[in-house]
Amino acid sequence: MIVRSIDVAKKFLGETLGLPLLKETDFPERGTKAAFFQLGGSEIEVIECLHEEARRVRLGDNEARIEHIAVQVPQLNAMLEHLGAVGAQMDAEPIVYDGDLMSFSLPATTMGVRFQFMQKGAGRGAHGS
């Protein structure tokens, strides 16, 4: 989720809903900071854009919005081949970030929703964006 204020999100998700805060991370190279909450066997990542223009582009006038849904897969390349065979398209070549290999879909080709497909640990040792 993209949020206007990570502190407001932490209060609502953590205090109001009682979701455990797993970790917080700063991404200065991306101009964002993030917090991860556990929801059953899944995680909710909330992202605050630190630069006004980026916040306006990604959030608009909203306080929060779902930007994409991340799906962990055992083999990213196999998933991308499968998706391609049914007409889904990615927005770019896979990237490595924080040791994980990932790719994002073009929403128009995946039910109007942007999906992030991620293979955890597949990029360890590789240089990533």
TrEMBL record:
Please list the residue ranges annotated as the VOC domain. Answer: 1-120
Q: Name one Pfam family in it.
A: Glyoxalase_4
Source taxon at top rank: Bacteria
**Record protein name field:** VOC domain-containing protein
Q: Which organism is it from?
A: Nocardioides humi
